[in-house]
Amino acid sequence: MRIIGLTGGIATGKSTVSNLFKANGFPVVDADVVARDVLKKGTGGWRKVVAAFGEDILLENGEVDRPKLGQIVFTDPSKRQLLNRLLASYISYGILWEVFKLWIKGCKIIILDVPLLFEAKMDRWTNPTIVVYIDPETQLQRLMARDRTSTQDAQNRINAQMPLDEKRSKADIVIDNNGSLEDLDENFRKVLDQVTKPLTWTEFWLSRQGAIVAMISIFSGVFGCKKLLARL
Q: Superkingdom, according to UniProt (predicted)?
């Protein structure tokens, strides 16, 4: 099984690339979706976050007010680190569970869409890693236009993440998204050719099909040895 790590920065177009993978039939495990699930009212993650940040972050229905919580952690690095520590184990478990379910289904290639892929060291689970990259000025302008926010607010959110240049230096594959959607689609097609090459033997043995072949081989070997011993 091949697990491809997909990451980028805010407003870089990572979600667009993730959707392109989905449109081409690849299963995607979205860490943002998992994170929303672990913060639902009544969950262990919800209880820890409410205990740490207080009930002021809750909506009238008891769910977490995500924009309000986001505003708190994006402007305070210590609170951002606290939130990450509180939810890290829940999110990691949730991602692994989603990957396991896809493994059971027999999926050979899985896309792991994780904004904090390198920060959370989840790149250790993936090969290759893909970073969607744009230059800092384009990132700032796109974020301001998308969220209709001020320059300072947008810059604070960008500064809260690992610099894109650092992510690019860690990546196996970089998708440049400084151009148009047509340019992005063209760049994506090139990457698609790279990541859909046949599985290596290691990746094959880690797939469900590989595990089945291994089990059949073991049982066949045991059965063969029993027949051989019976003749002695």
A: Eukaryota
